[in-house]
Amino acid sequence: MFAAPTACYRSAAVPTGVLLTLLLMISVAPVEAADPPPLTHRFKPIDEPIPAPPLRLPAVDGVVYDLAELQGRVVLVNFWATWCPPCRQEMPSMERLHRQLESRGLTILAVDVGEDADTVVAFTNQLEPAPTFPLLLDPDSRATQEWRVKGLPTSFVVDTEGKLVMRAEGGTEFDEPELIERLRTYLPTP
């Protein structure tokens, strides 16, 4: 039986062509129908918050977003890719979280790793609900490396002072009530 992974990893030691060939072989191999594993809400606090690395990237619409300009807001930074099953699975819950907490001061920046705008838009247009938060492009994976992302999806919470306060590796159910309550503790009080 085939079980979908909870995180996607890409090793720098394996050539991209080999990875794509393996991915194609897996995707066309006959498998039993199986539900993907449930997403979690495994955000863990960072014991000693540190300043977030720089993040300045264009979105699929060409607008450039700079994390430094968002100081004073809580920012959820999610690194993902369209080829990653748990990344695909968590995207609708991220939009639901965005709709719930944007007015309270939460900004979501979803950083696509290694793909172009057409690929990202084609995928996200199929989602229900479709994302309304910025979809940033990191085509050369430079930001991904600066943020020390080891696998996809990986998410971080940056507090109002620009410090990393929480991290999650693997697929996350972003609109889980427990996670929403934890995020509210970082948001400015209304």
UniProtKB/TrEMBL annotation:
<protein>
    <submittedName>
        <fullName>Thioredoxin</fullName>
    </submittedName>
</protein>
<dbReference type="GO" id="GO:0016209">
    <property type="term" value="F:antioxidant activity"/>
</dbReference>
<dbReference type="InterPro" id="IPR036249">
    <property type="entry name" value="Thioredoxin-like_sf"/>
</dbReference>
<keyword id="KW-0676">Redox-active center</keyword>
<dbReference type="InterPro" id="IPR013766">
    <property type="entry name" value="Thioredoxin_domain"/>
</dbReference>
<feature type="domain" description="Thioredoxin">
    <location>
        <begin position="46"/>
        <end position="188"/>
    </location>
</feature>
<feature type="signal peptide">
    <location>
        <begin position="1"/>
        <end position="33"/>
    </location>
</feature>
<dbReference type="Pfam" id="PF00578">
    <property type="entry name" value="AhpC-TSA"/>
</dbReference>
<dbReference type="InterPro" id="IPR017937">
    <property type="entry name" value="Thioredoxin_CS"/>
</dbReference>
<dbReference type="GO" id="GO:0015036">
    <property type="term" value="F:disulfide oxidoreductase activity"/>
</dbReference>
<keyword id="KW-0732">Signal</keyword>
<dbReference type="InterPro" id="IPR050553">
    <property type="entry name" value="Thioredoxin_ResA/DsbE_sf"/>
</dbReference>
<dbReference type="InterPro" id="IPR000866">
    <property type="entry name" value="AhpC/TSA"/>
</dbReference>
